[in-house]
Write a structure and sequence with these properties.
two-stranded antiparallel ribbon, 3 helices, mainly alpha, 2 domains
Length: about 80
């Protein structure tokens, strides 16, 4: 089930920001709220290291790499629907 992004109760797709830039936006990808102690923590670490989902090398332990793969799959699937 896809949830809508809101800003102060207003759905993002109805904001002036979105309306002004609609022609430049190919699509929207909604991210799940992640547990900050596990999946969310691993995603935060990946972003802090300025790496990508494809660049996990040995910087992360195996459990963290697996969690990041699990985070990436639904994001990848939504992007594929846009492209």
């Amino acid at each position: 089930m896809r949830k809508s992004v809101t800003d102060a109760g207003e759905v993002f797709e109805r904001t002036r920001l979105y309306e002004r830039n609609r022609a430049r936006i190919a699509g929207l990808v909604c991210l799940e709220r992640l547990n900050p102690d596990t999946f969310g923590g691993n995603l935060r670490d990946m972003l802090a290291r300025q790496t990508t989902f494809a660049d996990q090398s040995l910087e992360f332990r195996i459990v963290a790499r697996q969690r990041l793969r699990q985070v990436w799959r639904p994001i990848r699937d939504e992007i594929a629907l846009i492209a």
